[in-house]
Amino acid sequence: MTLIDNLWVGDPPRIPHVHFMCGVPHFKQCPADVGKEVALSGYSNVGKSSVCNTLTGANQLARVAKQPGRTREINFFALDAAAQYRLVDLPGYGYARVSSAIQHKWRHELDLYFRKRQSLVGVILIMDIRQSLREWDKLMLEWAQATQVPVYGLLNKADKLSKNKALHALKNMSVQWQGADLLQLFSAHHKIGITQARAALARMLATKSVRTLS
Ligand SMILES: Nc1nc2c(ncn2[C@@H]2O[C@H](COP(=O)(O)OP(=O)(O)OP(=O)(O)O)[C@@H](O)[C@H]2O)c(=O)[nH]1
Ligand SMILES: [Mg+2]
To answer: Could you give the residue ranges of the DSSP H alpha helices within 100-162?
Structure first.
């Protein structure tokens, strides 16, 4: 895998027809389950919404906040005019400062989303590069194996570490990952890794859905 050398790409062009579709608190309110979508998943505050903006080249598309717990709905972003291809920005997992009743509700809605969404063809699992693999991340990897839906990992906030430390973190994480080519360094702020991540997104959107839902 090529590393930092070819990861700095500057401002990516905005995806031409990218637009916000809707944010829904309940799975049953999701837009029509047609076409293909890739979900941005991970713990609260790892930078899912920031990654959504950087990947699409649309800076203000998804709401970003310093405080964890910003994204409270399942947010759908169309990548083309007909909304046949979508990115889905999910609420963060494991935000301790919301009540346990709300956490339970989010977990329930996310669980429904991952179990029932036919058009879900891939997941981009976002982690903070300074943290190790946590419980929810491991569950996502297990889910990926069980369902055959590909999970691609971004170690976000790579700008927070020196180049050597970032590469070391990538190496450590690769040991725990299924396929080191499915994991990369990223920085939503410093635009590290965009070309590689966009290519991964495009690959996932190009695959045929393998989901057989009960
Ligand atoms: N240094 C640095 N900060 C980042 C990066 N990406 C996101 N952040 C910051 O991390 C904080 C959380 O970013 P969000 O994009 O709102 O994170 P999120 O995962 O969507 O959070 P929730 O919606 O609460 O789950 C914000 O202060 C961002 O500016 C990055 O690549 N580098
Ligand atoms: Mg968010």
So the answer is: 100-116, 135-147
User: Going by CA atoms, what residue is nearest to atom 1 of ligand 1?
Assistant: 157
CATH 2.30.42.10 fits 4-206, yes or no: no
pLDDT of residue 3: 37
CB of 56 sitting under 6 A from ligand 1: no
Q: Taking each helix axis as running N to C, give the angle between helix 194-206 and helix 48-56, from 0 to 180 degrees, rounded to the nearest 10.
A: 90
> Structure tokens of 187?
């920085």
Binding site membership of 44 for ligand 1 (Cβ less than 6 Å): yes
Q: Output phi, psi for 180, to 5 deg.
A: -65, -20
Residues of the chain with pLDDT under 70: 1-11, 95-98, 210, 214
Give residue-wise pLDDT tens across range 85-114. Answer: 999 999 888 766 667 777 788 888 999 999
The domain ranges of the chain are 4-206
Tokens of 43: 């713990």
Q: Which residues pair with 184 in a beta bridge?
A: 154
State pLDDT tens for residues 10-37. Answer: 567 888 899 999 999 999 999 999 999 9
In the chain the first and final C-alpha atoms are separated, in Å, by 37
